[in-house]
Amino acid sequence: xxxxxxxxxxxxxxxxxxxxxxxxxxxxxxxxxxxxxxxxxxxxxxxxxxxxxxxxxxxxxxxxxxxxxxxxxxxxxxxxxxxxxxxxxxxxxxxxxxxxxxxxxxxxxxxxxxxxxxxxxxxxxxxxxxxxxxxxxxxxxxxxxxxxxxxxxxxxxxxxxxxxxxxxxxxxxxxxxxxxxxxxxxxxxxxxxxxxxxxxxxxxxxxxxxxxxxxxxxxxxxxxxxxxxxxxxxxxxxxxxxxxxxxxxxxxxxxxxxxxxxxxxxxxxxxxxxxxxxxxxxxxxxxxxxxxxxxxxxxxxxxxxxxxxxxxxxxxxxxxxxxxxxxxxxxxxxxxxxxxxxxxxxxxxxxxxxxxxxxxxxxxxxxxxxxxxxxxxxxxxxxxxxxxxxxxxxxxxxxxxxxxxxxxxxxxxxxxxxxxxxx
Length: 423
Prior knowledge:
Elements: E1 3-5, E2 14-17, H1 21-29, E3 34-38, H2 43-48, E4 53-55, H3 65-75, E5 79-82, H4 88-98, H5 103-110, H6 114-123, E6 131-134, H7 137-150, E7 162-166, E8 176-178, H8 181-185, E9 194-198, E10 203-212, E11 215-226, E12 230-233, H9 237-240, H10 243-257, E13 261-270, E14 276-282, H11 290-298, H12 302-310, H13 316-322, E15 332-337, E16 347-348, H14 352-355, E17 360-363, E18 385-390, H15 393-404, E19 409-410
Parallel strand pairs: 2-3, 2-5, 3-4
Antiparallel strand pairs: 1-4, 6-9, 7-8, 7-9, 10-11, 10-13, 11-12, 12-15, 13-14, 15-18, 16-19, 17-18
Helix pairs in contact: 3-4, 4-5
């Protein structure tokens, strides 16, 4: 069942798909009215804070989108903004109805199928790795052997790895690297169907691209130290000086996927000779706290930027007023996502020398109620984040690398005798 409440005047032009407090706060701060489409479990929060909402089960088949579109149209909604992976195809279906463009839905579906996504890119001449879909371990075995045969590997050579990814999972959820035939034997039915692809060489980075009328309105480059662990914004001068070739790769992607409005979050690999390989692309808010870092470094709220770019009726004047120059940032904002290195933990701790470092901002490490560490699922269940800000990218890089190796949690067998660290 679905329900709705409205505590504001009509009409509301924008629908936020998914429960996201920072997104709602951003629109409220800019006096931009909205209705949030949220799962049932968040309705109490919406009622308490008098936020206009519709409760909705995003697990339903998209045939239900007509009903949701009608409910939103009654509010005056013309734009649906996807905040999470599970809402991307819903945004496509809704915006297709709002704009009377049924092809929008099929284009959004490309963002939810990694194999189709790569096939579309390849058809438009964008560099991608070799890839195949797989339904079982035999398919993986065959692909692994073919790749290494093509690379003329002989007995005794270290075999080249391949990557296994679910076809429609968000980001790196379910991502496995297959290095040996023995790794294949550990796979189970839940790993299939999947995408198999060759390992891409080069420096990995992401872009957060705000697009309006098929034009790039703001392009942030996020430098990964280690994907899923640490990153900072904007990119260091070494990567930033390659902005021209990166921007062209992004524009090629916009043209290939026929992206008109909103934002995309592509990941690329760039080699020392400036060859760019396409990894994948999403059409929703990126993970890794990147939006928080963009706000700190560039001085604008990316949630509001996303909403402005998603609306075809946003004017050129509004866009120029909202987005700063891409080169205007004079400080770097970084973060380290913390995962316990032990299986059982009792408390969190912060090294005293880190707390007094001039680049240290804050942390939100938490004391878990269950001492047993949850099995890691991609990069989404870290136990807290440490934030940094400073004006030297190399200092930022060294800090992130150094503290990736630090255990911020204690296990029962370790005594804190003489420990001068601070929680």
